[in-house]
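Risk register update: the risk that structure generation would not scale has been downgraded. Supporting records follow, first protein first.
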Amino acid sequence: ILARMAPSHAVRCCQRGLSWIPVIFINLVVCWSYYAYVVELCIYTIANTEEKVIYLIVFHVFFFMFIWSYWKTIISKPASPSKEFCLPKADKELYEKEENPEAQQEILKKVARNVPVYTRTGSGAIRYCDRCQLIKPDRCHHCSTCDRCVLKMDHHCPWVNNCVGFSNYKLFVLFLAYSMLYCVYIAATVLQYFIKFWTNHLPDTHAKFHVLFLFFVAAMFFISILSLFSYHLWLVGKNRTTIEAFRAPVFRNGPDKNGFTVGFRKNVTQVFGDQKKCWCLPLYSRYKTHPSSIICRAL
């Protein structure tokens, strides 16, 4: 048994190590961009002291908010279903012994009466996770990468090496927003010096490569992040996850892509919290109601 477990354990360890490569790549790019902007552009290239100070102050504000939201998204553990969704010991034993799928469904239906579950599988059955051995709450899905069920799962993001769901979706959206602002600020302030270097109006120093490359990288990341950020803003307004956008959730009365929407304002509140003064900060937000406890339009 130990001989069989060793390879799988080694594979999992390798997978966990490799999963940090995208995060390491992003951090290396960010570290270089910090050096290129602060040292090569502001210290070595910009001659005007007032312009230099203003650029550095604003840059560090965007840089701090970007790093804060990024690492909060990374370290925030995905929220998993509570114990009330697990099968009681007696029902679990009956479910495992039963080979008839219809009989298994009857066991799940009996347990599901005591928990707030309104969604079903495509065939109308109770959603059950054999891996986690629990009845899936509404909007909950099993992440094969994290090997756990995640509440209101949106997707597993390799760039943060984490599942994006109920516990950190606000953080993820803010990460996209601040990374976009970080990139557009760099591109906008570097543009004039990019043109001057390109037209040979500045001395050909070692800073030239960093400034030219900094503009291209910032512009490229801004364009790619803009489309992703716009898409997630649309999802927030519709109160959908990426999974639900591609496959409409199925309720007792059938599939309904708008089954969880409760109006634009409340949809936004469910993601960013009740305190508007904290919407722009990557902090935990309090909610008056849990998304899965809201009575859906589809009912």
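Supporting record for the second protein:
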Amino acid sequence: MPSFLVSFLLVFTISVSFLSCITVGEVVTCSGIVPMRLRNDKISIADFGGVGDGKTLNTKAFREAVYRIQHLRRRGGTLLYIPPGVYLTESFNLTSHMTLYLARGAVIKATQDTGNWPLIAPLPSYGRGRERLGGRYMSFIHGDGLQDVIITGENGTIDGQGDVWWNMWRQRTLLFTRPNLVEFVNSRGIIISNVIFRNSPFWNIHPVYSRNVVIRYVTILAPLDSPNTDGIDPDSSSNVCIEDSYISTGDDLVAVKSGWDEYGIAYGRPSSDITIRRITGSSPFSGIAVGSETSGGVKNVLVENINLYNMGVGIHIKTNIGRGGFIKNITVTDVYMENVRKGIKIAGDVGDHPDESFNPNALPVVYGITLKSIWGENVQQPGSIQGLKNSPFTGICLSNINLHGVPGPRSSPWKCSDVSGSALLVSPWPCSELTSPHQTGSCSDHF
């Protein structure tokens, strides 16, 4: 890990701890939607022959340990302890009522033997693998139809060793869609906390068709040139809490999704009631994103207290013709960004299609987007809001936004089209399509 990142993480950890100490009982958190559960029954991976030498393959040990938890069904569940060491393994499933606990110095490391990686069916809201036709490789750590599952510890590491997958992507030799690092499907009551996630082959943490999910105090790291290594992607999920984390990856830090074109429309499961709070990070792509796969709809998203550095786009709301669905009631507030190519982007022409069967008349509806209290330094272009001619974006409300450009004689202007709404105290001034709220009364409830 680069020394500057170590220093930053140390400061970040101390800052969070200090804040907690001086404002006990006052720090706003959504984590209470899933209470942390203590397990009286505890087993160790060493009990099943696990060897943390970084060379021994521990797949049998992990699968037998999970099998034991699943079938003994201890009251209150069971904690699987991973002691210090490097535990090489193939992918494995979790089970309900378990805690996967990584001690300080513990590393669960994915094998780079891709030939035996299990294949699973594509998600119905995507209709195919996100990258390739057909199925997809199972996530490194996977859960389907589970409840009451915790992944936590003392900042141990889950390492996907993704470079072999990234190279397959670059060389166009992938047979199926790359595996995520951690995925929960059709699950509820999930907590992921106090773990470092490294080098995911594809998306890092992917809760899909799930509810009551808490992700906090995590660190997610991947090289800035690693393809599609999104940090956290809540997808067709509800009641999701994402807080107090550091993310530096090769793609969006957090991206809210809900299905892809005609498949997402048919599946019809929105993402809703999602809170994203106190996230710090950097990426050549987006800091906080909604989309572009939003065909099931996205609503009721709160984003606040975000710090972004060396970004492609700060805040990015993105969809496309053929997506259908809706994006509504999105609030983003208290954001600081520095060294950013574009501060704010709301666009209706982003993302590809699964096949040629998408309906070009399936137009997304975007309304009720509130962005306020955003400050940026060295922002090359302040923003763009470009809706669709036959489905303009409405109720766009900007207030108290200052996006300072790079040094030079003049800054780049906003770009707007097919949009309506209001702006107040925005610098540089956005565009004529956004009127003053004192003129129209539009969005006055948000100022």
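The radius of gyration is 22 Å. On this basis the risk owner (M.S.) recommends closing the item.
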